[in-house]
Amino acid sequence: MISIENLSVNYKSDSDVYTAISGINLTIPEGGTLAVIGPSGCGKSTLLKAVAGLIPEYDGTIKINGDELNPKKQTIGFMPQNYGLLPWRTVIDNIRLGMKIKRAPELLDRKVLKKLMRQLGIEGLGHRYPAELSGGQQQRVALARVFALQPDVLLMDEPFSALDAITREEMQDVFLKLWQKNNVSTIFVTHYVEEALYLGQRIAILSASSGNINRIVDNPLFGGKDIRQNPEFFEMSLKLKNSIKKDWNQAWEN
Amino acid sequence: MGKLVSLWYLLAAVVLTIIWFVVSQLVDLPIIPSPVLVVENLADIFMKYIAIHSLYSLWRIGAGLLLAVAVGLPLGVIMGYFPQTDRFLAPVVYLTYPIPKIALLPILMLLFGVGELSKVFMIFLIIVFQVVVAVRDGIRAIPNETYYPLYSLGASFKDIFFEVLWPASLPKFITAIRVALATAISVLFFTETFGTQYGMGYFIMDAWLRVNYLEMYSGIVVLSLLGLILFTTIDLIERNACHWQYK
Questions:
Q1: Contact A98, A146 (CB under 8 A)
Q2: Which residues, including other chains, have CB under 8 Å from residue A251's CB and lie 6 or more apart?
């Protein structure tokens, strides 16, 4: 479970203080997913980084499974926009990297890793370098890396945005399958309404200007079969898009 | 692959020797002896006279290089990874970097004497700046996304260093050494012309003063081979340590 209370982050430059997010309250139940959607510059990456423990100074509280956020104690799987794979490590070493840092050799079970790689369709790529892989394959390696850790929390920053539309939908399915098996509390940031609807149990819409949450929508379609083909899916995404547009236009006018 | 590369080296050596031979025949003066005579002479005197000189030169280069790495690598890492220190150290580096190091030689000789120390220190000075700047820039070029997953796992500085900073800056670091080494060898030659009785610089200049052109050329050939050995060693290290770059 992730609970965020009254979270604010200010960036200080030499002469200025800039508020990226303020007054964020969120709870993600054990094994739930939350999509965060918002325009660029609304602070959604900042929110994710704060939960990832990448921002040392913030106001408010972030708790993971009841304990104060601490990257050294909890296992936080963070998947950055460009997969964050190390170009100088082979695929298998990239996947093992997290365990090495966590000093968790008990997770280094060859059979488990092999099974995970098979599920992701990257078996046999273990000895290649990231530069030798396609974008979709790199994405799969990044997923293997976070899931292999059995993290307390999974955080994804624009996870599938660098992929072409067809690969993206494929990867969303791959992710969903893995997530259902592992049941990890997940927050992901996206700018695709369809992605938010497909992968998010709940969807938090960040406001365009103030850096807080405009509203949180429960997603009744989540987990349904082939919901992308469902007319309700289209309807809901259209409705969401329109309400987001309205909010953002208002923000621009102010 | 390895075979092919050595074949190209051999070809280069053959072509250069042919040009040398043709020029020596055209000019027909003692100042440019035929390579055949030089090789004969080299075979005669290498073990007797030259080997000890080449070892001296090699030791000076090696010691200067090691010292430069020992100082330059940590400094480059610190400057690249902690921007605050760079703000303070960059002006210091930039102000001293462009000074022709050879201009400092009189000072070095006063401080460290005319012997080994000033020669080693000279090589150190030439290489260290290139190493600092290359390592720093290599580390600066690492995108933040590379660090994020490691930070969020609570990685220590040791983890960051061995998983990211070291492998990311290694190719730049090796290139810097390769570039600096050529200058270092030329300057070494110069510093070996005084205050010592050993070193390839001494041997070549001494042969020249004795108007023994065959020995002088033998020395030049050995110096060139010395460079070749150093550069191929660096290439080999790079191929082994950074093979991910060639994928």
A1: yes
A2: A207, A208, A209
pLDDT at B247: 66
Question: A8 has which bridge partners?
Answer: A59
Q: Which residues of B touch A161 (CB under 8 A)?
A: none
Measure the CA dihedral B233/B236/B242/B245, to 10°: 120
A89 pLDDT higher than 90: yes
Model confidence at B181: pLDDT above 70: yes
pLDDT digits (tens, 9 = 90+) for B95-129: 888 888 888 888 888 999 888 899 999 999 999 99
| Calpha distance A136→B144 (Å, rounded) | 21
Pick from B25, B8, B33, B76: which is nearest to B221 by CA?
B33
- CATH classification of the domain holding A242: 3.40.50.300
* Contact present, A201 and A222 (Cβ < 8 Å): yes
Query: If 0-12 CB within 10 Å is exposed, 13-18 middle and 19+ buried, where does residue A164 land?
Result: exposed
Q: Which residue has the tokens 């510093």?
A: B191
Portion of chain B with pLDDT greater than 90, in percent: 61
Which ranges constitute the DSSP H helices of A6-109? 44-51, 91-102
The stretch A64-80 carries a mean pLDDT of 91
pTM score: 0.84
Question: pLDDT tens digits, residue range B13-59?
Answer: 899 999 999 999 999 888 899 999 999 999 998 888 899 999 999 99
Q: Two tokens at A32?
A: 């739930």
Q: Which two tokens stand for residue A136?
A: 């979709």
Q: Provide, as residue numbers in chain B, all residues whose Cβ is less than 8 Å from the Cβ of A81.
A: 145
For chain B, give every domain's residue range: 1-32, 38-246
Q: Does A132 touch chain B (CB under 8 A)?
A: yes
Q: How many domains are contained in chain A?
A: 1
User: Which residues of chain A from 80 to 119 reach within 8 Å of chain B, CB to CB?
Assistant: 80-84, 86-89, 97-98, 100-102
Identify the DSSP state of B193: T
Helices (H), chain A: 44-51, 91-102, 110-119, 135-148, 165-182, 193-199, 231-253
Please name the residue of chain B whose CA is at the shortest distance from the CA of residue A94. Answer: B163
Over residues B183-213, the pLDDT tens digits come to: 889 889 989 988 889 999 999 999 999 999 9
**Residue of A122, A173, B170, B240 lying closest to A130 (CA atoms):** A122
- Identify whether the C-beta of residue A180 lies closer than 8 Å to the C-beta of residue A213: no
A102 min Cα distance to partner chain B (Å): 7
Topology of the domain comprising B38-246:
MetI-like fold (1.10.3720)
Domain limits at A119? 2-253
In the 8-state DSSP scheme, what is residue A183?
-
The token pair that represents B42 in the structure block = 């080299």
